[in-house]
């Protein structure tokens, strides 16, 4: 039976010429990793603050940046739906617009399906209410 290879993992020696990390080195590595993670988060929030309108001069409170970003995305989504409805009312298929990114096509297609299902459900409810009224079961 052959001997099993030496165990490898965090804190274990990786061979005869690679010594284990001291506690101070581990702590130092952990601190550096945490600082790098925090810096990446700060850069992400700074990028969001630079993209979202109205964030100029607001400081860099992460809660404020997130709140403004959510509000902005919701406004953009509502505007996208509004424009899609205008296009549909004019007989234009919103997904056939040249240069429209594929992600927008998916969103519009999904919303169009939801709108169609909602319209069908409302029509059925309206028909049910009319039928009930005609049969004397109405309010």
From TrEMBL:
Compartment(s) of residence: Nucleus
Ranges that cross the membrane: none
The UniProt record lists the keyword Transmembrane helix: no
SUPFAM superfamilies: HLH, helix-loop-helix DNA-binding domain
Composition bias type Basic and acidic residues, residue spans: 17-37
Name of the featured protein: BHLH domain-containing protein
Superkingdom to which the source organism belongs: Eukaryota
Stretch list, region Disordered: 1-39, 119-139
Alphabetical list of InterPro entries matching this protein: bHLH_dom, HLH_DNA-bd_sf, Max-like/E-box_TFs
PANTHER family: BASIC HELIX-LOOP-HELIX ZIP TRANSCRIPTION FACTOR, BHLH TRANSCRIPTION FACTOR (EUROFUNG)
Matches recorded under SMART domains: HLH
Keywords: DNA-binding, Nucleus, Transcription, Transcription regulation
Domain BHLH: 25-76
Compositionally biased tracts (Polar residues): 122-139
């Amino acid at each position: 039976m052959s001997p099993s290879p030496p165990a490898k993992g965090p804190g274990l020696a990786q061979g005869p010429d690679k010594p284990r990390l001291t506690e101070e080195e581990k702590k130092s590595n952990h601190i550096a990793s945490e600082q790098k993670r925090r810096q990446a988060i700060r850069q992400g929030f700074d990028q969001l603050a630079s993209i979202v309108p109205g964030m100029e001069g607001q400081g860099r409170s992460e809660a404020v940046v997130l709140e403004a970003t959510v509000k902005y995305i919701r406004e953009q989504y509502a505007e996208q739906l509004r424009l899609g409805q205008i296009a549909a009312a004019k007989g234009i298929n919103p997904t056939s617009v040249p240069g429209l990114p594929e992600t927008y096509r998916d969103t519009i297609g999904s919303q169009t399906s939801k709108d169609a299902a909602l319209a069908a459900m409302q029509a059925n409810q309206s028909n049910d209410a009319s039928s009930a009224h005609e049969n004397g079961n109405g309010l």
